[in-house]
Automatic annotation (TrEMBL):
Keywords: Aspartyl protease, Hydrolase, Protease, Signal
Entry's Gene Ontology molecular function annotations: aspartic-type endopeptidase activity
Position of the signal peptide: 1-19
This protein's name: Acid protease
Catalytic residue positions: D102, D295
Organism: Mycena indigotica
InterPro entries xrefs: Aspartic_peptidase_A1, Aspartic_peptidase_AS, Pepsin-like_dom, PEPTIDASE_A1, Peptidase_aspartic_dom_sf
SUPFAM superfamilies named among the record's database cross-references: Acid proteases
Keyword match Protease: yes
Entry's Gene Ontology BP terms: proteolysis
Domain Peptidase A1: 84-411
Family: Belongs to the peptidase A1 family.
Length: 457
């Protein structure tokens, strides 16, 4: 819920007139720590299904493929850095919903009031209460994940985030959903990848904003908070900041390193090449030319079978998990230092992000990088990603996604955002650091918009 003081500022702002970025607090939903084997297996299955390495449970269901102003929108970190979500308004009058902000997919969908098996606390869209809803087809459309499916009807509706609005946004109102795919206050997903992979064939919301010149610059940026490693956290915690139309200079230091997207054809995912991985300060041999999807909607990091095995071979005592397919375990007493590069700077990952907790025995811990491809043949020239780089990495950088030109940028986090102060150190924001940073950001910025939360995907 947006505080009244923020709401008052929002009401005073005219639409499409803001000339500077607006920075909004993001929240995070914590709940129980997602540490059971089934939780992490579901996370891996989700990523494999998304990038074509999993077998959909229903072959007939489509697989989810995943200048006026700028605004930094708050979002929420859910279940100990499992996923991050923000708020979107749909319909006339507007109905507000929390949706996972996902650079690894391109569709917008929310649970509908006719949903047959949504959990009771999930907020649902009621099309009958909106004067602007238009149904596009009576034929159901499905989206399949490794961990479940959603199915619903295509519609067109007024959709807004903060002061940005699209009058006729295509989306899926979901009428059926697999158990466990959503939880808590989250109602769906907003895809932030390119329209070429949209199952609904709708133009993604962010691309519609670019086309209508509503963004000061054609950019999106993320700062994601870290609560992994904290012993206690609330059900919802500050999740960081999501900026539409620019960047928030208070959240990073130094220059943003921009890297050109690799797009063998038309843009699909946000793809970069993985050029280097180091473990314990030793370079690991990896597949040349392998592509990585930079994916805020995926919790962990997945990679090609040989590369992941090479990573763990440098860690004394590491073994393949006897209980979790595609995962490795290592002695809990080991502090793992992993860094990744995509053609420029080398970015370290906080050791807390690499340790997912106890594995098959009390002295062994699960590693935060899993085998995405499970032995599948990798052809880098095909344009398919064999790496998925999710929040395990993205919590450690300020990330920017822009078009014209198509690029991804990374920058070192500022002290306000919990920087380690050194590209070779892995210290991140503590629980209090995250709260302080968010409160300070609100104190020095205009506040508007959206809250983001986190899920295990």
């Amino acid at each position: 819920m947006i505080p009244l003081s923020i709401a008052a500022i929002l009401l005073s702002l005219p639409a499409f007139v803001v000339s500077e970025p607006i920075h909004i607090e993001i929240s995070r939903r914590a709940g129980r720590w997602p540490s059971s084997p089934s939780d992490f297996q579901a996370a891996a299955d989700f990523a494999r299904s998304r990038y074509g390495y999993g077998k959909p449970s229903n072959s007939t269901t489509k697989r989810m493929q995943r200048r006026a102003s700028s605004q930094s929108l708050p979002f929420v970190n859910q279940q100990g850095d499992s996923s991050y979500f923000g708020t979107v308004s749909i319909g006339t009058p507007p109905q507000s919903f929390n949706v996972i902000l996902d650079t690894g997919s391109s569709d917008l969908w929310v649970a509908d009031s006719s949903c047959r098996n949504c959990i009771r606390e999930t907020p649902v869209f009621n099309s009958g209460q909106s004067s602007t809803f238009q149904q596009q087809s009576a034929q159901p459309v499905g989206i399949s994940y490794g961990s479940g499916q959603v199915q619903g009807l295509l519609g067109v509706e007024s959709v807004s985030m903060g002061t940005f609005s699209v009058a006729k946004q295509g989306f899926l109102k979901v009428t059926a959903i697999s158990n466990g795919l959503l939880s808590g206050s989250v109602s769906g997903i907003m895809g932030l990848a390119f329209g070429a992979i949209a199952s609904t064939q709708a133009v993604p919301f962010w691309q519609a904003l670019v086309s209508s010149n509503q963004l000061a610059t054609p950019e999106m940026a993320f700062w994601l908070t870290r609560f992994r490693g904290s012993r206690r956290f609330a059900e919802e915690e500050p999740g960081g900041s999501f900026t539409l139309g620019g960047t928030n200079s208070s959240l990073f230091q130094g220059e943003i390193e921009f890297l050109n997207l690799i797009t063998p054809g038309q843009p699909t995912f946000w793809l970069l090449g993985v050029s280097q991985v180091t473990v314990q300060n030793t370079s690991v041999p990896i597949t040349k030319g392998a592509l990585a999807a930079i994916d805020t909607g995926t919790t962990l990091i997945g990679g090609p079978s040989a590369d992941v095995a090479a990573i763990y071979s440098t860690i004394p005592g590491a073994i393949r998990s006897p209980t979790m397919e595609g995962y490795f375990e290592f002695p809990c007493s080991t502090v793992i230092q992993v860094s990744m590069s995509f053609g420029g700077k080398v970015w370290p990952i906080n050791p807390a992000d690499m340790n997912l907790g106890s594995g098959s025995s009390s002295n062994m811990c699960i590693g935060g990088i899993f085998d995405l491809t499970l032995g599948s043949a990798i052809t880098p020239s095909s344009g398919n990603p064999s790496w998925v780089v999710g929040d395990t990495f993205l919590k450690n950088v300020y990330s920017v996604y822009r078009v014209n030109p198509n690029q991804i940028g990374f920058a070192q986090l500022s002290d306000l955002a919990g920087s380690s102060g050194s590209p070779q150190a892995g210290s991140g924001a503590s629980r209090n650091d995250a709260r302080h940073a968010t409160q300070s950001m609100l104190a020095i910025s205009f506040a508007a918009g959206v809250a983001i939360t986190s899920y295990l995907l």
